[in-house]
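Hi support team,

I've been running sequence recovery on a batch of backbones for a student project. Most finish fine, but this one hangs at about 90% for roughly twenty minutes before it completes. I'm not sure whether the input is malformed or the queue is just slow. I've pasted the structure tokens below so you can try to reproduce it. Let me know if you need the job ID as well.

Thanks,
M.K.
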């Protein structure tokens, strides 16, 4: 149950990152929903395909898609003007949502691979964790015609690598999967936030860029 709730949180977080990006691109509710679904579900779908879990859980349990769509609708209603009018606010929402989703999906990706019977293959455990963490964001950026953050943002690829390795080491040391997931996710989030330090959080802007 704990893993299920964590994945719902990660789905909601990445869905929010997709939704606010769609809002920034001035997409309609359909476009915003597509980006939210791609970001929120992409990582778990690709992870499950790699691990041979077919169809992926996101296709058999509608709650993941429902959460992503709910986030998209709420963002469209509540955050549209904020995102359009204040670039710094957009950057902050996007960064925090992306960091949370990246961290949790990296950790749960490692655990999913471990539970799928690949405990003896450390390389696979780490790789699946990284892929699970970054895939949703990459799909989101490609659909929005953005340069993928995985390639162009500083230290972005380092964050899931650090988290995946830490998660594997903690699990193998016997501390338990729950502690490993939390510690790994926190590590990823911190590295992701630190990679952004000095950019948006150090820039204060209350200017409104829109007239409507």
């Amino acid at each position: 149950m704990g893993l299920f709730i964590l994945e719902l949180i990660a789905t909601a977080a990445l869905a929010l990152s997709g939704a606010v990006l769609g809002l920034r691109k001035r997409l309609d509710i359909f476009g915003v929903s597509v980006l939210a679904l791609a970001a929120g579900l992409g990582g778990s779908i690709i992870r499950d395909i790699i691990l041979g879990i077919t169809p992926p859980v996101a296709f058999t349990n509608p709650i993941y898609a429902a959460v992503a769509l709910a986030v998209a609708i709420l963002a469209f209603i509540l955050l549209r003007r904020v995102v359009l009018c204040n670039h710094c606010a957009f950057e902050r929402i996007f960064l925090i949502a992306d960091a949370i989703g990246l961290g949790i999906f990296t950790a749960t990706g490692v655990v999913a691979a471990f539970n799928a019977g690949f405990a003896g293959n450390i390389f696979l455990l780490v790789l699946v964790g990284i892929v699970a963490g970054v895939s949703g964001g990459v799909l989101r950026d490609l659909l929005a015609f953005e340069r993928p953050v995985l390639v162009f943002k500083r230290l972005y690829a380092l964050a899931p690598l650090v988290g995946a390795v830490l998660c594997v080491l903690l699990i193998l040391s016997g501390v338990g999967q729950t502690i490993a997931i939390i510690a790994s996710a926190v590590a990823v989030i911190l590295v992701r936030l630190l990679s952004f330090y000095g950019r948006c959080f150090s820039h204060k802007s209350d200017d409104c860029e829109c007239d409507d």
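--
Follow-up from support: It reproduced on our side and the slowdown came from queue contention, not your input. The longest helix spans residues 87-115. No action needed from you.
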